[in-house]
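In this supplementary section we document a worked example of the pipeline. Step one takes a protein sequence of length 176 as its only input; no multiple sequence alignment statistics are reported here. Step two produces a three-dimensional model, which step three serialises into structure tokens for compact storage. The input and output of this example are shown verbatim.
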Amino acid sequence: MRLATAGRRDRTRPLLVRRWRQAAERHLTPLQRSLLITWISFGVTFGTVRVITHGIRGGWLPWGNISAGGEHLHHYNFGIATLAGLGLIAVRGDERAIGHPVVAAAYGCGTALICDEFALLLDLQDVYWASEGRISVDVSFGVLSVLGAYLTARPFWHEVGRITRTAAASGVRAVA
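The serialised model returned by step three reads:
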């Protein structure tokens, strides 16, 4: 039953996405897949948090900061909680969780939440909106995220580029 469902799902998956998946299976070890997911989730989380915090501060998002008992909860708190939960999984030694994509994604997300407010943790002063170094920190983490995702799986990205160029040249649809 499971194989039939997987086969049906594979036939309905767009050709380009199917080719990317095949490239990943050919070029990425389980460790590389976990690292790639970690780096990508770090970058996506970091970027998303930056947009959300700017939106809250600028008033163009419809919600505000999260508070508990009148105290603002910084997003590094959620990052620490996420990493503490992952630590519990690691200490417990659950073999099924080792290298699992959800664990890798959660690690990247938790780390990004902490790194985004690192200056606050370092100085114990809320300097999140101080102009000193904000742009360089944002650019640095963005570059590190992209570089990490690329270096983790360089042969895979090269094949994805080749597949994508070939598909674009032949008119293969990327989405269903």
